[in-house]
Amino acid sequence: MTKFDGNDVNAARQPDQTKMFREAGEAADAIARQLASNDGIVTRLVGKLQAAPPRFIVTCARGSSDHAATFGKYVFETQIGLMTASASPSISSIYQAKQQLDGALYIAISQSGGSPDLVRAAEGAKRAGAHVVALVNVEDSPLASVADSVVPLCAGPELSVAATKSYLCALSALVHIAARWKGDDALFAALQATPAAMRETWAMDWPSFVAGLVDAKNLFVVGRGLGLGAAQEAALKLKETCGLHAEAFSSAEVKHGPMAIIGRDFPVLFLTQQDESLTGTQDVAAEFAKRGAKVWVASSDAAQAHRLPVAPAAHPICAPLIAVQGFYKAANALALARGRNPDVPPHLNKVTRTV
Known about the structure:
The protein is α/β, with parallel strands linked by helices. The chain is 45% helix and 14% strand. It has two domains: 22-198, 3-Layer(aba) Sandwich (Rossmann fold); 206-337, Glucose-6-phosphate isomerase like protein, domain 1 (Rossmann fold).
C-alpha cells in the first residue's frame, strides 16, 4: 500500500492514510490521557470556583472551539445552573470596549492559543474582573500565559488543518470541569467510560451516509441541546473537508424558516442523545423522511429508522463525543470520495490568526 503523503487527492482508495483519519482515531486515547493527567488541575480550579462562586459564565472561541463552547453552554447550564453566554472576541480586539465582568468565569477555548483576538479578549476579560480559564492544546501559548488557570487539552500534535481530536478533548475537558464542580461522581465515571465507546464507534462505518452525499451540494445537520454544538461542528467539517455546503440547526429552529426547503432527496443528518430532546428530534427526522428527504440519524438504538450506528453513552452528556467520533471517520471517507484532500482544505491554514 502506498502511503498517503498529505497532498495526493487520489488517496480515495486509502482513507486510513490521511492525517485526519489518524488524528481523529487518536481522540479516545488522548481523552483517557487527559482525564488521568488533568484531575488534579481540574480539582484545584473547582476549589477556586467553589470558594468564590462565579455569577455567570462567558465563553470565547472561534471555529471548532466555538462549537465546543456551545456544548459547554448546555453542560454548565444543565449541570451547574449558571447562565453561560458566548462573547464576541472583536469587542476587545477591534472595538476595545470596556466590559463589566466582575465575578464572571471566562472560559477561552483554543487549539493553538495563538490567535491575537482571543488573547486580547482574554486580557480584556481579566482587566474587567473575570477569572480567565484557558482550555488550550499548546500549553506555552500566548493565551495560556494570559489566563488565571490553564486546563491542557492534552490532544498531542495535530497536523491536519481540520481539528478533530483537539475538539473532542475540549468537550471532555468541559465535562470534566462540570462533573467535579457539581460533585457528580457518576458523570465523571461516565466520562471515563467514554473513550471505550469512542473506540467501539471508530470501528463502525457509515457507508449509506458517504454514498448518499458524494454528489450532494447542500445538507442540514440537526441536533438539539447537548447535541447542537456537535451539529455545528459536523456542518463546519463538511464545508471544510468535503466542499459541501452544510448548515447546522437545532431540531426546534429547523421547523421555522429552514424547513421550507426540505423536500424530496434533500439530505439531513440528525445527531441524537438519549435525553429529553430525543423524542422531538426523532419526530422531526420522521417528518422529513415522510417528505422524501434523505435522512440519517446517528443513534445507539438499533431500532432507530435511518440509523447511523454509534456506541451507547454511559450518560447523555457524553453522547456528542461518541457521535462526533463516528462522524469524523465518515467525513474523512466522504472527502476522499468527493476527490478532496481532507488534510489540506483550499485557502485554509492550521492556525487562523484573526484580530
